[in-house]
Amino acid sequence: MCDSDQYAWLKYDGQRVRRLVDEDGRTYVTVPRESHVEHHLLVVLKARRGVHKPGLIDCTAEELKYLGATISRWCAALKRYGYDSVYTGCYSDAGHVHFHLIPFNHARDKGYKGEAMQWLAKKECISDSRPFDGLSDTDKRARLRKIECIVKCLTALHQAEKRKHG
Questions:
Q1: Is residue 1 scored above 70 in pLDDT?
Q2: Is there a contact between 54 and 95 (Cβ–Cβ < 8 Å)?
Q3: Quick one: which of 48, 72, 148, 149 is 20 to 30 A from 159 by CA?
Q4: Angle 61-80/137-164 helices, nearest 10 degrees?
Q5: CA 112 distance to own-chain centroid
Q6: Which of 128, 22, 127 minimizes the C-alpha distance to 71?
Q7: pLDDT of residue 90
């Protein structure tokens, strides 16, 4: 995952679909190949001088503050997009710090409050979280179209917000 091209694009069968929603000097915000729910995002801390922070425990206070600001900005964007909650989890089992932002609307998606982890576990069993490489050709193309749509919508929302705040 040190290759920025992997964060920016998903390639399959001659297609190249952009999955990067935002990038700055310290983070990538991208749609994962294996999204658990619609508009699932990854906030990834970039390597510094070619070295990834393997876990939260290895991050400096400044890096954690920056990650927090990026996560806050994207949670606000997801709220403007109609979600009322975002589950998050920090993972570093791939050798780098990254946060999953898993948005949902209680009334539309769950119908009840609470039991977040049970809801997500059930959702993962029937969602698009199946590995991309294990999908049929038809399902891979559908996943690519979905990612393309999500990136387009969230990028437009983000750009409008940037223009609004100068």
A1: no
A2: yes
A3: 48
A4: 100
A5: 24
A6: 22
A7: 80
Report yes or no: 118 and 136 within 8 Å, Cβ to Cβ.
no
Question: Which two tokens mark 51?
Answer: 């070295």
Q: What is the pTM of this model?
A: 0.82
Structure token digits, residue 16: 């190249």
Q: Side-chain half-sphere of 122: how many Cα atoms within 13 Å?
A: 7
For the chain, domains (ranges, CATH) are 4-164 (3.30.428.10)
Please check whether residue 158 is in contact with residue 28, taking contact to mean a CB–CB distance below 8 angstroms.
no
DSSP notation for 81-99:
TT-SEEEEEEE-TTSS-EE
Bridge partners of 43?
29, 99
Spatial neighbors of 56 by CB under 8 A, at least 6 apart, are 64, 90, 92, 97
Between 36 and 124, where is the model more confident?
A: 36
Q: Residues 128, 146: contact at Cβ < 8 Å? A: yes
Q: What is the pLDDT of residue 38?
A: 83
What would the two tokens of residue 38 be? 């619609």
